[in-house]
Write a structure and sequence with these properties.
The protein contains 5 helices and 3 strands; from the N terminus they run αβααβαβα. With 88 residues, the chain is an alpha/beta fold. It has one domain: Rossmann fold (3-Layer(aba) Sandwich). The chain has a 3-stranded parallel beta sheet. The N and C termini lie far apart (35 Å).
Length: 88
Amino acid sequence: RYWETVQRLRINQFYGAPTAIRLLMKYGDDWVSKYDRSSLKTLGTVGEPINHEAWQWYWEVVGEGRCTLVDTWWQTGKHCLDMCEYSE
């Protein structure tokens, strides 16, 4: 349902816990790849450090190797500031 929502609403930021990312990985790549995620610009994680395998999958499969990935472990209350877009 995540990826259908990203496609339908053209969501540009997606934030999740590493535990959830690892769970989503178990379902494989096909159910992610069938949806258009080209609107995504930033991927984020929060709550705990993300392991390398999950980071790689999140960046390559979900973010198609083009999204910025922000890992804000142990900063649960700070994530809203990290996800803001700033203009120069």
